[in-house]
Design brief:
By secondary structure, this protein is an alpha/beta fold. It is built from 11 helices and 16 strands. The strands form 3 sheets. Strands 3, 5, 6, 7, 8, 15 and 16 form a 7-stranded mixed β-sheet that branches. The structure holds NADPH dihydro-nicotinamide-adenine-dinucleotide phosphate and zinc ion (ZN).
């Protein structure tokens, strides 16, 4: 089979590999559509997870089951499925402790394009198929379904980590596709005011649709100064970080009210340390929580988030700014994600038909 791979840091291309073998609980899946992620950019060009040789990229896909192992109960060849970017081992101790995304070690629930070949391939392997796949609702187009692999669960996880409650004022730093889903999730959870940081006009327009009220450009000076000016110096109840670099935590701590919480889902691709401003952190006693987490994967979450989309309560289509047809356009879509043109939110490549 052919797959689009990271050859080494900074170099990518098509390679030939054996079709992966599946174990008794696994599935072999072929993609119907795949989406490019900013994390692919961090991995390939920034070397953020270290060197990888000839590893097939990609972790966002919607697909059709080709083959299943003899112990798989609920899926069969021909089923159309949602596939989460994170596919934990559900019988691990970490999963039993409630941290499935770290099953087998820190971040080890993230297998595609990290510890094994990813989804930019004619076929890919899914471990623990009954625990990780979900049936694709009939009224969701495979292109939109790709938003359920990572963008929806990650953006929503930021909301969970920040513990957004009814009536909270919320700052969302970064309104790429992940931050846009954090805006949508915060709005669903009952935020009373959502301030959003980002400059791409398409993202600003989409953020308005998802419930953001006011916008801040990080190019117009420190984010913290702008937020404090907009809130009469009081700051906000919760901050979700979905963009920017290590320096965003300083702003986040500065604008948080005592007792506030930060939920980070941003992948920090560079820099050695995150610094916390001592005084604004209440000289260590401000009750300002900092939580950062990889999104949980798994079937239950996929089914629930899928039902939000199929019921019409969440419209993910605003995220899909570019649709390409066929593998021939995969590289173009990937390079587009790296270069982030002003009209980009999320590029998707349709494989079927
Ligand atoms: P994008 O690059 O599309 O969006 C980033 C956003 O951050 C944009 O709104 C951008 O603004 C804004 N931004 C850029 N620089 C700054 C800055 N200095 N200060 C504040 N805001 C800034 O990213 P995605 O939405 O695709 O992904 C967001 C992050 O989430 C990535 O790091 C990605 O790797 C990570 N991620 C994490 C996952 C997890 O499970 N934890 C899973 C998937 C992704 P502008 O409009 O100007 O471009
Ligand atoms: Zn992703």
């Amino acid at each position: 089979m052919k797959g689009y791979a990271m050859l080494k840091i900074g170099e990518s291309g098509w390679i030939e590999k054996e079709v992966p073998a599946i174990g008794p609980m696994d599935a072999l899946v072929k993609p119907l559509a795949v989406a490019i992620c900013t994390s692919d950019v961090h991995t390939l060009w920034e070397g953020a997870i270290g060197e990888r040789h000839n590893m097939i990229l990609g972790h966002e896909a919607c697909g059709e089951v080709v083959e299943v192992g003899e112990l798989v109960r609920d899926f069969k060849p021909g089923d159309r499925v949602l596939i989460p970017a994170i596919t934990p081992d559900w019988n691990s101790l970490e999963a039993q402790a409630g941290y499935s995304m770290h099953s087998g070690g820190m971040l080890a629930g993230w297998k595609f394009s990290n510890f094994k070949d990813g989804v930019f391939s004619e076929f890919f392997h899914v471990n623990d198929a009954d625990g990780n796949l979900a049936h694709l609702p009939e009224n969701i187009d495979p292109v939109d379904a790709c938003m359920l692999s990572d963008m929806v669960p990650t953006g929503f996880h930021g909301v969970e980590l920040a513990d957004v409650q009814f009536g909270d004022s919320v700052l969302v730093i970064g309104i790429g596709p992940v931050g846009l889903m954090s805006v949508a999730g915060a709005s669903m959870r009952g935020a009373s005011r959502i301030l959003a940081v980002g400059t791409r006009p398409v993202c600003v327009e989409a953020a308005k649709k998802y419930g953001a009220d006011e916008f801040i450009s990080y190019k117009d000076g420190p984010i913290a100064d702008q937020v404090l000016a907009m809130t009469d110096g009081k700051g906000v109840d919760k901050v979700i970080v979905a963009g920017g670099g290590v320096e965003t935590f300083e702003d986040a701590v500065k604008v948080l009210k005592p007792g506030g919480k930060i939920g980070n889902v941003n992948y920090l691709g560079g820099g050695d340390f995150v610094t916390i401003p001592r005084v604004e952190w209440g000289v260590g006693m401000g009750h300002k929580e900092i939580n950062g987490g990889l999104m949980p994967g798994g079937r239950l979450r996929m089914e629930k988030l899928g039902s939000l989309v199929s019921s019409g309560r969440l419209d993910v289509h605003h995220l899909v700014s570019h649709v390409f047809d066929g593998w021939d356009h995969l590289e173009e879509a990937l390079f587009m994600m790296r270069d982030k043109p002003r009209d980009l939110i999320k590029p998707v490549v349709r494989i079927e038909g």
